[in-house]
Amino acid sequence: MRMTRRALTRAMTLAPLAPALVLPRPGHAQSFPDRPLRLVVPYPPGGSTDPVARLLAAEMQNILGQPMIVENRSGAAGSIGTENVARAAPDGYSLLLHTTAIATEPSLKSNLPYKLLTDLQPVTELVRGPYLLVTNPRLPVKDIGELIAYGKANPGKMMFGSAGTGSSGHLIGTMFAQRAGIEVSHVPYRGGGPSITALLANEIQFVFDTVQTSRPLVLEGQLRGLAVTGAERAPLLPEVPTASESGMADFVVDYWLGLFTQAAVPAPVVTRIADAFRKALALPQVRERLAGMGVAPVGSSPEEFTATVRRDMESWRGVIEKARITLD
Asked: Could you point out which of 51, 82, 116, 118 has its C-alpha 20 to 30 Å from the C-alpha of 89?
């Protein structure tokens, strides 16, 4: 087919514009963002993740010059919100705030609708905090060593609770039992609240919870805090020793909240987002609020956070496979 002179002229006019249709705009990172961003939390409002998301998002107007809108997209243990971000346009305007759970999901579910580190890339680790091992005061143990001794003296009789199969409380309780060499039974509940209620009723022997959640009950004497799992004591409960201080030197396990975006977002944009959150985490009012939540600000680089995610994926895979835990 012969091309007419008019068609040829039109093709030559449009040809220089073609690369602009497929390549990022020059200076895109410098002009980013030029419209509001959204921060997806894959859990319902009111949980431990939501307050951190809203605290940091509120600072983005001043730091980035654009508002950041928090969207709670819960369901399927976080998979719905995560997939929503993974399938969004790779322009940096859709972000995901997730927990350590995102690093355990690939080992728990074989049919995830996305692939971590393939569809998503880590941006920055925002905050980090320890777990708190709590027991009912009626249990005749006062430290983690006595709990282990009690478990060995009563094999198969000790039970621990969690917010459900595959939850962080389930996995760290399983890791603890594996490291301690004790035989325990897991009781899954429909949320963290019911597991604490069962512990208060002395129906189970221990729970791994967040410091912020169980602290009031420990201070009131309704629960006994045996140990925190961080490398250092928790500022909110300075009288509770670390697991390392109590004889489990290799038992240092934190949970984190981190930021993710689509894998195809250009590196300069990812760096700009990470820098913005790092600035927010450095603000005195933000640090004060985070301390009250029992977590510490981190603000790592994308490369550092990627290394953390990879390490945790591998670490938890071993625990999960050994215990044969699955959500399929």
From this structure: 51
pLDDT at residue 27, as a whole number: 52
Question: Which amino acid, 199?
Answer: L
Pairing of strands 94-99, 37-41: parallel
- Classify domain 130-228 by CATH number: 3.40.190.10
Which residue stretches of the chain are H helix? 5-14, 18-22, 28-31, 49-57, 60-64, 79-86, 101-108, 144-153, 168-180, 192-200, 211-219, 267-281, 284-292, 302-323
Antiparallel, parallel or unpaired: β 296-297 and 120-135: antiparallel
Interatomic CA distance for residues 228 and 234, integer angstroms: 7
Please give the Cα distance from 322 to 302 (Å, whole number): 31
CB atoms within 10 A of CB 164: 18
CATH 3.40.190.10 domain span(s) along the chain: 130-228
Residues of the chain below pLDDT 70: 1-28
The CATH number, out of the four listed (3.40.190.150, 3.40.50.720, 3.40.50.2300, 3.40.630.30), of the domain defined by the range 36-128+254-323 = 3.40.190.150
User: What's this model's pTM, rounded to 2 decimal places?
Assistant: 0.88
**C-alpha distances in Å from residue 31, one per residue of 26, 34, 70, 75, 279:** 10, 6, 22, 34, 18
What per-residue confidence (pLDDT) applies to 16? 44
70-98 pLDDT per residue, tens: 999 999 889 999 999 999 999 999 999 99
Which tens digit of pLDDT belongs to each residue from 209-240? 999 999 999 999 999 999 999 999 999 999 99
Q: Which DSSP category does 242 fall into? A: B
Residue 10 CB partners (closer than 8 Å, separation 6+): none
